[in-house]
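Sample A.
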Amino acid sequence: MLLKKLMAILMGLGGLPGLSGGVQAARPPQPAMDAPGECRDSAFLQQHPLTETLRAEPFVIFYTRSGDNAPPLEDTTGSGTPDYVKNVAIQLQAANQYYQKMLRLTPPLEQPRYRLAKAIHVYLFDLPRGNGMAFDEVTRVKGEDGNWLPCALTIRISSKLNQPLNPTPAHELFHLYQYGYTQFKVGWLLEGMTRWIESAYNGEIVMSKKLQARPPLKGAELYALRYSAWPFWQRLAREKYGTVTLSPELEAVRYLDGNPVFRTTTLPGGEALEPLLTRLQELSKEQSRQANLPYYQWPEKLQQSHQFDDVICQAMEGIECSR
């Protein structure tokens, strides 16, 4: 009470001598423009106990052998790890090599945005909807012993996929690559580009004759799409960039049943990915400076905002993007 009276008196007198504007609360320091985001605490493993792990660098795959969250437990190799889990690891490691060595992309854990992350955690459980999710924040969880595990990026994968040919693990991993480059999270960019990249695992996506005859997608028609925006990226890449050819080492990678991980040996226009994502990285920073926001700490609502659609589209080699 005495402190409140003293503060009231000081404010009434115009504050302490030598201080203009009265008593002011100290402002928290403004984070540096290139400061990484926080490593947030997560209770996920307390809510979904996944007590088994498979390490496949840089991934740590968490799963369980019991309950609704358990994947199929068949173990044809007798290794003690279910085939389902091993096939997820095979796809993730092959995709990671493909994105780095073939598409020449910087892996998420080497990006400045994610310098607090030490691994990529993959949680296999019975998702309430969809096949997978990738998160752009760095988090940490408690292990079985109650101690915090190192900070990590997170992917959640359904434990009920039609294995091994479902490309969800590679799809979600590519989102982490995108997040490492850019803050923009609109569907036509994230999902459209990723669906086009999936052709490496599904076989080449071929445009129908009807789709080929249509003018290129642009403006509001393009921006309203998500997965169906893939023709925009395929057309852009093929017109302006060269083909990526799979290395013999990756071509030889097989799932446990002998099926190849990669269903095509070429990605026409694949050389587009590195320059396009680098341009988006530069564009994110430009918008950050204009808004006086740290590069890697945009509010989620702003990341998903369509206010940047025209800016993003026009940055892609000067394409006509008007609405």
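Sample B, a different protein:
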Amino acid sequence: MLSIIISGLIFVIVPSELPVLPRILITWLGFAITYISICWITIFTMNVTEIIRKASIEDGSKAFVFLFVILASFACLFTVLLMVMGFNDKNISQWFMVLIAVGSMISSWALVHTLYIFHYAHLYYKTKGGKGLDYPGDEKPDYLDFAYFSFVMGCTFQVSDVEISSKEIRRVALFHGLLSFALNTFVVALTINIIAGLIH
């Protein structure tokens, strides 16, 4: 809720003289940075007992939020592409536009994999005692352990030293890997497009 309020305030505060696409991206940055910050404060401060209690609770709204953020992230990347391909306003600094575009790409990428942290935690701890991911050692995994799994999948499209022992999590990881490949490919393509635009 806080991230929505802040992004709404940013959209109102941003000068109306600015074209629509940059305003949308600046608003998205406000939402994404706020949401990611809140998530990572939770990740660093919540202990395993609290994680088990929170992650094991079934909450139907989580699926909606998860789907919304993923769709919004790809919509943001598509908006960046449109802006890079069609924005030619000489009154606005090119470097300012590049900064907005790069910030939007990074925040979209980080937001998707941050959301997967909580998704994996829920899938793991919804069963008493936790199961589905086999981490080395005997300690119960916390959010940082799920972050490790999520971002390794996001960067390499594969698991590392954590074994998947649940069919449900295996299917989620399959979709996560495919999503990561598409997202990373889009980011690389946009980066090349931005660099080419700066050169010319």
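Observation for Sample B: Residues 48-199 form one domain.
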